[in-house]
Specification:
homohexamer; alpha+beta; BirA Bifunctional Protein, domain 2; three-stranded antiparallel sheet; 4 helices; 28% strand; globular
């Protein structure tokens, strides 16, 4: 799995969630996770979460750290399971790397990370004809978000370090999952 | 997903990791997670983890809480991802439900849960011709284990409550994963 | 499997055969079958049956009862097999619930239901990136159809009752098929 | 799909439900349906239906016509759907080819065919590592059956003719299903 | 597998690489390979090879023999493997059917055929929602190609004969591959 | 893909064609190709090629170079296609690396390599519950073979060099196939 932190800032508008984004825009071949900082504003035409579409949700933030994961040749169930694992990795990382929580605990509910009722992240996992893809983003600031949010600034953490660390943790998790499928005997 | 805590104690010897165990032995139809208490002693012929086979590992404990998960019609990659999610759910649950950690943090490494270098759990995910199956077990005591271990007794937690709670959490996670695959628009 | 009879009348024009139609337009999550009454007129751009496209077929009727079935995470072969089973269920239901046939027998040929050379139904099964989908429709009247047809009026049957009954029968069939995949031992 | 009526009589004991039975024992390559006449007695060790295993069912009959269907490279869901279609084809064929029913109707419930509470058939669909396989059998006589049964003798039908006809109908159904997956445009 | 040499000349512009091309434009149902002669000019919007897109490649030739292969219900890995086999079949055929090589050897590198550094062919394998498809083309002349090329004229071979022969060889290869999946016993 | 030439000589008796052979016996994790020298004698109970079973074939040779390929998470169709590609790679390699053919050409027919009617190789591709596996072997001598054979001695080639070279070529081919599935845009 290739990883890349893209140093240029740009907004996520949903158009990045298309197959081969990391390859065609950033030259990463194969399974990949990329990250960058930027605003978030997803027009209705690019929204893929049916729940958001039904709720006519507004999904936006002034500054977030975005992750796009692409894994080839897997079904959507696997993609959603990986999304939950990535959320879990982020939560555990943040919990152990900040002192700003004052003994409180972040928790994961499905693909979301919360502190009390403050939402840190947004995410969706979906399927292209050749891959499963995940968008996951965490607030860097609480500006411009339509709901009560938590941000990396609240946690006093530096975005790029967080992004690179969780990408490395996810790459390691992904590699070990693949290996675990290649060293087990089948059962009757 | 059906869940069941089996009140009868019996040892896990690897023979329980076969397709339809929950259905044929306990009447649970469809995807399921069952749990029970008992010793652990896996003879070489029932060992399916290639790494253990290569290492000629001894896998045993005097008293553990065992979980068997079975999910039909999925590939092994999905099975291993679910295994990691279950480990993550257990770790999070234990961390927030015990006061015996004194500010220390449990952590998950792949499918294992640790406190410092003390290992709480063992696990394997594998494939039958009709399903993927997971065995996951946590020490109830530290007696009879071949390595330095952590146990639910150390955490001062009651086994059956833990087992039923994490099974409910996993059922909820599984249901939401399935739903997440049924309400998302595909991408190009 | 969710079922719904939509009480509003509207024409089927092929645009309803898209993934998540039942979820996004009618709030049904997961595998589903929905039905409604309305005309049928499928412009060439929405036609998906290659045979119709080659034949430059005209597919229309003034009043039909339409069914849209969506099942996630299955291949097209399964979708076509389910389509045949649904046609079979409809045929059997109509045969045993009408007295208007005077001893004659309806028969199924692939996905079509006939009485002699009179065609009762049209159908197509196809694949979205996330699901397989089936459109199946039976004439309520014989008005506006381009070929010799049979209709529910000829059979003196009330449309909504028929629709709800066959949807319930299909839900039951689908549930039992799933269960049958979860209680059988594999063979060598 | 190859079809064969095996003229030699022999009992079905469950051992025939293994991959490549038609190829290794009768030289039929590829998807196939074979039929023969003989008794039925399935020892517990060859029983694959979990429901029968739980019920400690006795499955036997003195003379039945047996069918073994094998289709490669499909999942069990497809296999069970094909099993239901085969039961449906048999029921429709019998209904229209006998005069012995006196206006009564056979009906299909899942994979079984009944007249009132008399059971005509037994069936199971399962999975080998390389194929899905179906055993389906109808009573030729009512001798030796543990429950109230219907038989081809009751229907005054000649076994071999029935067997060859339903095999031809199934081959045609199977071919048309495959073709239907190869001439449809995908949808969004 | 159906094969067809289309006698009408027309240019390949990438639009032919869409599902059901052989069925909807030429009436071939099921897995197929078709061939025709014509120029090659692929606008950027029809280009599917990410490597070409990244390189802003110019893909053209004045006269080529084009092949479109479509196989249903397979993954892209299988499609790419078939593409390599087709390239291999073409290379072997040309090597043994021309005397113009003067003892030199053609070689295959992935999906390309070369003589020294002269490129004979272009190819891509991709995935539609219902099938995998391959475009493979060999130069008939060296006119209009942007790189150093080899052509069938250099090899003094008649295009239509070559095309029909390699299509027959590929059909035979495909048939034997399918058969090989239907006559082997599974292993533990 | 891992590759290994095993320096110890041992006979192939069919028992090596089981999942995880390279991992459990030689420590290679993941997709792999291993080779070794030794006799060949496959008892009936280990024979998996149905054609050989029907023909009651004798498969043996005094000294062959054996290859075992294992690829995880692929269907048998892919496995057979890879087998054909490996045969093709071996044939091309031998043709260009020997001077002993005196202008004659080796040819591949399915999974076999021939010179005129002399057979150089034997092969089978099959499926374990977790992988597809290929056995491919070429004669080192013509001693002990039941049919007219060709051997590496006839070609005056050194076995270990051949084995390592074709394993490297296959690894490269496999890697490029995987990459080709990860850089192509899907089509409609």
């Amino acid at each position: 799995m290739e990883t890349l932190f893209i140093d240029k800032k740009f907004a996520y508008d949903g158009s990045q969630l298309r197959s081969l984004f990391a390859y065609l825009d950033h030259g990463l071949l194969g399974p990949s996770i990329v990250a960058w900082e930027g605003g978030c504003n997803i027009p209705f035409t690019h929204m893929v979460d049916g729940e958001d579409l039904l709720a006519k949700a507004v999904i936006q933030g002034d500054e977030m750290v975005h992750f796009i994961i692409e894994v080839f040749d897997r079904d959507l169930f696997s993609g959603v399971a990986l999304q939950r694992l990535f959320a879990s990795i982020c939560k555990d990382y943040l919990q152990t790397h900040t002192k700003a929580l004052n003994g409180k605990s972040l928790y994961r509910d499905g693909d979301d990370i919360y502190l009390d009722d403050k939402k840190l992240s947004i995410s969706i996992a979906t399927k292209s004809p050749v891959s499963v893809m995940i968008h996951f983003a965490m607030n860097i600031t609480n500006q411009g978000t339509p709901v009560s949010t938590l941000s990396l600034q609240d946690l006093k953490l530096e975005t790029k370090t967080v992004a690179e660390d969780v990408m490395n943790l996810f790459r390691s998790e992904y590699t070990k999952i693949i290996e675990a499928t290649q060293k087990v005997r089948p059962i009757p």
